[in-house]
């Protein structure tokens, strides 16, 4: 997948796939110091408007630190974004993505301060190519 694979509709759900090649400790706003292990990370978010601009903002490393993901992006490698269409919410998508990549919530409450789910950042040791294939399969199954 590449940036060209992103649906350019005005709103929707998305996953940002990133990686770390070594463990890193990062201060993440109100969450404090967080230890992130080596591996792939998938951040699940939504944009009510300007989906493409939101994804482009997440890609930049230099920006005002507004969301939890902004802190993580300072140290992570950008792999690729995926957009999802459908009516389900980001909490449900996070749960499905977690299952699809055999992952786990990287840090409780990361990216989910405005909802009640465990978190929107998923960690997996799965190879990035397999992550991509599994996300493609999830999109094909429908619902997103």
UniProtKB/TrEMBL annotation:
PANTHER family: ENDONUCLEASE III
InterPro entries according to UniProt: DUF123
Pfam families xref list: DUF123
Protein name, UniProt field: GIY-YIG domain-containing protein
């Amino acid at each position: 997948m590449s940036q060209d694979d992103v649906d350019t509709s005005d709103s929707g759900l998305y996953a940002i796939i990133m990686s770390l090649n070594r463990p890193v400790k990062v201060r993440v706003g109100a969450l404090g110091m967080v230890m992130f292990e080596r591996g792939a990370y998938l951040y699940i978010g939504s944009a009510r408007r300007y989906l493409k601009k939101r994804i482009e903002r997440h890609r930049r490393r230099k920006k005002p630190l507004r969301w939890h993901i902004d802190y993580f992006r300072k140290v992570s490698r950008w792999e690729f974004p995926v957009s999802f269409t459908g009516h389900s919410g980001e909490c449900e998508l996070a749960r499905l993505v977690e299952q699809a990549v055999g992952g786990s919530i990287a840090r409780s409450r990361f990216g989910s301060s405005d909802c009640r789910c465990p978190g929107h950042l998923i960690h997996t040791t799965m190879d990035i190519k397999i992550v991509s294939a599994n996300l493609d399969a999830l999109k094909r199954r429908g619902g997103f």
